[in-house]
Amino acid sequence: SIVQLNNNAVAGGSSLSTVSSGTAIAGEYMIVVARGSHATATATSVSDNQGNVYTKVLGPVRGGPDNATFYVYLAPITSGGALTVTVNWSASPSAMGNSLYRIASTGTLVTGQTNSASGTAWPINPGSVTTSQSNALLIAASSNYGYGEPAAASGWILNNVANKAFLDQIVERV
Fold this sequence. Notes:
Blueprint: E1 2-10, E2 15-19, E3 29-37, E4 43-48, E5 55-63, E6 68-76, E7 84-89, E8 96-103, E9 137-142, E10 156-161, E11 167-173
Antiparallel strand pairs: 1-8, 2-7, 3-6, 3-8, 4-7, 5-6, 9-11, 10-11
């Protein structure tokens, strides 16, 4: 389950740090959705002040009239405490944002399924992802650019719209 969410967005710069509220506990997971608006910039690294190791699970996915580029990173929390997560970019996006999702889990987080799509009109359909277990989490990230918002399909609960400028959401399977 999601135990904490933080996000921020800024214009310009080549890195963005986001402070996580609350105290991360060893055994939890941190999911970072990083996005920037730039035709060629790439996220070069994600790190935090406690030394947890972040692995890219999706990205780059680039598209839309604002050249939005998305990445999703995952870290098992091995060193807890107050976290500040920093995303570094290869160039300075005109706008960038980070969303942090701290996930409480009693098992291993499985990241084997990803789909992506890009376009300039709503709706954008990346296809289906089929889960075989209850309590599954899905992340939907898009640059809404005024086109609307993703919606949860039947059997899923929409938990959060983290940032209206760069839209990302977490949905849980019921």
